[in-house]
Amino acid sequence: MKKQLATIALSGTILAGGMMADMPTAQAAGNGPDYQGHETINTSILHTYTEMVDFLETQEKKQANMELEVIGETVKGRDMHMVKYMQNPDNPTILYIAQQHGDEALTTEGSLEFIKQLGTGKTKGILENVNLLIIPMYNADGAMGDVNYELEDYAAKGDRHLTRLNANEVDLNRDHDAKTQPETQGLHENVLQKYDIDYMIDLHHQGAQWIKDDKYVSGAIFPSHPDHTAPDVFHGSQQLGAVVYDAIEPKGWGHLANYAGKGSAYDNGISVYGLAHDYDISTLLFEMRGTQDNANDFEVLGQKSNGYLTKQAVVAMDAAARAIADASIQDKDVSFWDDLPVQEESPY
Q1: What own/partner pairs with CB < 8 Å and gap ≥ 24 does 144-150 have?
Q2: Domain annotation for the chain: domains and CATH numbers
Q3: Nearest to residue 99, comparing CAs of 204, 210, 224, 232?
Q4: Vertex 111: Cα angle to 91 and 30 (nearest 5)
Q5: What SS3 string covers 262-331?
Q6: Treating both helix axes as pointing N-terminal to C-terminal, what angle do 306-325 and 106-118 enclose, rounded to 10 degrees?
Q7: Coil, strand or helix: which one is 219?
Q8: Is-catalytic flag, 287?
Q9: Catalytic residue among 109, 183, 287, 299
Q10: pLDDT tens digits for 211-230?
Q11: Which residues, if any, are the signal sequence (predicted)?
């Protein structure tokens, strides 16, 4: 790591996990029902871009340690917002990116809940010893369905669809090498090249069909690539994964696997690979179960799962911040990666 992590005693507890009801037909830990055309999916229960901005501006007024920074614009001209907690530039810094794919919205819901929590006594002692950078809605155009192409046969009801790609129909998580899109350019020019970042968690969703040990996973984790990452940076990626795994797996709804979805082949345009390679950031990909809208039914998870998945994002972000702040991340054993099963696809 580029900075010496301070060792302090922290008070407070992470958000407690609750047991979620199992699906009637699934052997699973923490499942809501699959969509498969049988359940209403309504985007109106999710924050719109405008509602998110209003929330962030309200929190900035309430929280003395919070600063709201605009890091660029989307294709459609929406400001890209980053929440910054930086009391000491010499502290280790972690970056959280949410909703890089616009149909993966509970990463944003979790980010907003985490930001709200940072303004309370629950996180006392953290912000003095770690810097947090949070981008709660990276792909705002996709999140609003405001794009230059048709969105047909999508699952969700409500006043908008959510779509994976940006307004130019580009996958932003394949653009970190070429940097063709304004969203990518804003991130690299105004965040990655400006701040000395040590860790990053890229929060995503994957399809609802993935299993481990014959149970649907609540999510999957994946570090940077050992052949394209400096050894100490790769080790930090594995340690960051250990922090997240140890925080979530014991929960009644927690069931994590090793990621093995599309995009797992090395590509420097993917953030978990490119940011580790280009900026020496210890990166972790976290793919939670089920998207919130899609034209493919098997990708979508019923919205009754929103509660535990949002909580899962909060727990991951909170646990990472604590472990970096008190330096306990440096003692994390990474051998669990050797035995963590790779998720498998369950046929419907």
Answers
A1: 144/48, 144/49, 144/78, 144/102, 145/102, 146/76, 148/75
A2: 43-292+325-338+340-344 (3.40.630.10)
A3: 204
A4: 120
A5: CCCCCCCCCHHHHHHHHHCCEEEEEEEECECCCCCHHHEECHHHHHHHHHHHHHHHHHHHHHHHCCHHHH
A6: 50
A7: strand
A8: yes
A9: 287
A10: 999 999 999 999 999 999 99
A11: 1-28
Residue 72 corresponds to which tokens in the numbers above? 């660029």
> Rounded to 10 degrees, what is the CA torsion of 55, 59, 121, 97?
70
Task: Give the residues across from 42 on adjacent strands.
Answer: 157
Single-letter amino acid code for the residue at 31: N
Task: Report CA torsion sign: 99, 68, 15, 258.
Answer: positive
* Angstrom distance (rounded) from CA 148 to CA 295: 17
Q: What is the pLDDT of residues 10-52, one digit of tens each?
A: 333 223 333 333 333 333 455 555 656 667 789 999 999 999 9
Of 225, 235, 248, nearest to 320 (Cα)? 248
Q: What is the pTM of this model?
A: 0.91
Which residue, among 263, 267, 262, 313, has the nearest Cα to 289 in the 3D structure? 313
Provide the token pair at 130: 């770690």
